[in-house]
């Protein structure tokens, strides 16, 4: 089954093409239409996740929490750089998450990767697990708790309405009780132990 290209997306791609040429002409519009059709045919968009909703108040809470974690992690990494003592204790943690939608998984994985000192290495959909590299790994359970808290905030801000409502009714107890755990730790303290 082939999907017909979205008209607004087609118009947008043609407009971008014409803007890149910096001149509106019949030839630019026609070539933009051809290029847009080829692009949309060769690289069709998948089905859109219609369960995602943006809730402004919850999105603001998510952004404030993320900004705080960003500042906190930046300060820790900056301190590590300017001090002579090496306190790096890196590891990879597998964190089972709720995985309620692709949108939420993507938001959480990208928020983790944007935070200095952490990087999402892999996101699995079934079962929903994030593999996160942590530069300053002290406690695996703390990494799990913080990631699940971030996911709960993302669900409340961008998740399906029924899941966000269920999570809101559970309160912070939902964050304290994560899904079944398969988290692992692979410590490597500042290059002192053998690297794989």
- Read across the widest sheet, the strand sequence of neighbours is 1-3-2
List segments where confidence is low: pLDDT < 50 over at least 5 consecutive residues.
180-196
Overall tally of domains: 2
Number of strand elements = 3
Return Rg in Å.
22 Å
Portion in strands: 5-15%
Which structural category do the helix and sheet elements fall into?
mainly alpha
If helices are DSSP runs of H or I spanning 4 or more residues, what is the number of helices? 7
Q: What characterizes the major β-sheet?
A: 3 strands, antiparallel
Q: Which descriptor suits the 3D outline?
A: extended
Share in helix: 40-55%
Question: Would you tell me the overall average pLDDT?
Answer: 83
Distance between the termini: 46 Å
Order of helices and strands: HHHEHEEHHH
Structure write-up:
It is a single chain. α3 runs antiparallel to α5 (140-158), α4 (102-114) crosses α5 (140-158) and α5 (140-158) crosses α6. The chain has helices at 7-21, 26-42, 56-82, 102-114, 140-158, 161-170, 173-176; strands at 91-96, 118-124, 129-134. The chain starts with 6 loop residues before the first helix and ends in a 20-residue tail after the last helix. It has a three-stranded antiparallel beta sheet, covered by helices on one side. It contains seven helices and three strands; from the N terminus they run αααβαββααα. It is 54% helix and 10% strand. It is extended, with a radius of gyration of 22 Å. The chain folds into two domains: 7-42, no CATH class; 56-176, no CATH class. By secondary structure, the chain is mostly helical. Mean pLDDT is 83; it is low at 180-196.
């Amino acid at each position: 089954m082939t999907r017909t290209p979205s008209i607004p997306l087609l118009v947008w791609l043609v407009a971008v093409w014409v803007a890149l040429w910096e001149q509106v002409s019949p030839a630019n519009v026609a070539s933009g239409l051809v290029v847009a059709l080829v692009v949309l045919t060769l690289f069709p968009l998948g089905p859109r996740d219609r369960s995602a909703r943006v809730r402004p108040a919850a999105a603001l809470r998510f952004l404030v929490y993320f900004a705080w974690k960003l500042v906190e992690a930046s300060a820790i990494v900056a301190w590590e750089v300017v001090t002579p003592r090496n306190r790096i204790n890196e590891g990879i943690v597998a964190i089972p998450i709720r995985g309620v939608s692709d949108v939420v998984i993507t938001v959480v994985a990208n928020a983790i990767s944007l935070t200095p000192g952490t990087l999402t290495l892999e996101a699995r959909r079934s079962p929903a697990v994030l593999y996160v590299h942590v530069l300053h790994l002290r406690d695996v359970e703390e990494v799990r708790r913080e990631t699940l808290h971030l996911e709960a905030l993302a669900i409340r801000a961008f998740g399906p309405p029924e899941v966000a409502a269920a999570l809101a009714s559970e309160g912070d107890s939902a964050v304290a009780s994560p899904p079944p755990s398969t988290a692992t730790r692979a410590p490597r303290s500042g290059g002192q132990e053998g690297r794989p």
